[in-house]
Amino acid sequence: GIVIDTSGHVDIDLAGYSVAGPVVCYTQVPGSPVQCYADDGLGKHGIEVRSGSVSIRNGAVKGFGGSGVYFAPPAGGSVADLLVSGNATHGLHLAADVTRIAQPRLVQNLQATSNKNTGVWVDGRSDQLRHIVSTGNGYGIVVRGLAHIADSVITVNANCGLNITGTVVLHHSASLENRSNACGTGTLLGSKSSFLDKGTPW
Q1: Which residues touch 76 (CB under 8 Å, ≥6 apart)?
Q2: How many other CB atoms are found less than 10 A from the CB of residue 123?
Q3: For residue 185, with 0-12 CB atoms within 10 Å meaning exposed, 13-18 middle and 19 or more buried, which class applies?
Q4: Which of 165, 161, 166 is nearest to 193 (CA)?
Q5: Is residue 165 scored above 60 in pLDDT?
Q6: Which of 140, 127, 130 has its CA nearest to residue 175?
Q7: Taking CA 80 as the corner, what is the angle to CA 78 and CA 86, rounded to the nearest 5 degrees?
Q8: Rounded Cα distance, 161 and 164, in Å
């Protein structure tokens, strides 16, 4: 994988190419649990951002034992026009902790598919997700901090589509045909969003 540790700004344009690891993840049928093999158990990330401000765009990150893309606290930056697929942990993990508050991260036009744990995992306190499609993962989107989610679709995930223990401000989005479309003990705000079909509406 790629590790970035900087005090400045780094721009990564994958130019349509993939950062690929050895792990292969798949589902037997849509909505079933994701299975992975060739995972060495070391949890290596495809792109790991440890510090600074980093923009990642225009490509794919797939096949890693950790997350496809991992932003450690206090790193900030953005992700755009990216596929994160077939990773044994999360597709995209925006991390934060109580001692190191992460900079805001902006994610746009992201597709997360066939990631074993979660398509997108958010710990940060001011992260923004726009035009996200999270499908065929363990969980669709998990929010432990504060996230603004807009114009997104969460569907056919094996567990909960939108799992919240923090706060989500949700606009013009839908969670449907997941095992459960929304769950957790957190706070959901916003308007013009739908939780349909399987599971109990929020």
Answers
A1: 52, 53, 54, 102, 103, 104, 105
A2: 20
A3: exposed
A4: 161
A5: yes
A6: 140
A7: 105
A8: 10
Q: Which residues pair with 128 in a beta bridge?
A: 106, 148
Residue 77 corresponds to which tokens in the numbers above? 């930056």
> What CA–CA distances, in Å, run from 176 to 131, 147, 152, 199?
16, 19, 11, 9
pLDDT in tens, 104-163: 899 999 999 999 999 999 998 889 999 999 999 999 999 998 999 999 999 999 999 999
Q: Please state whether the predicted TM-score (pTM) of the whole model is above 0.85.
A: yes
List the one residue out of 120, 88, 116, 118 whose CA is nearest residue 106: 120
For residue 95, what are its two tokens?
């991390």
Return d(Cα 141, Cα 138) in angstroms, integer.
Answer: 9
For residues 20, 22, 23, 25, the Cα torsion angle rounded to the nearest 10 degrees is: 60
Is 121 in contact with 94 (CB distance < 8 Å)?
Answer: yes
Question: Residue 73, preceding bond cis, omega within 30 degrees?
Answer: no
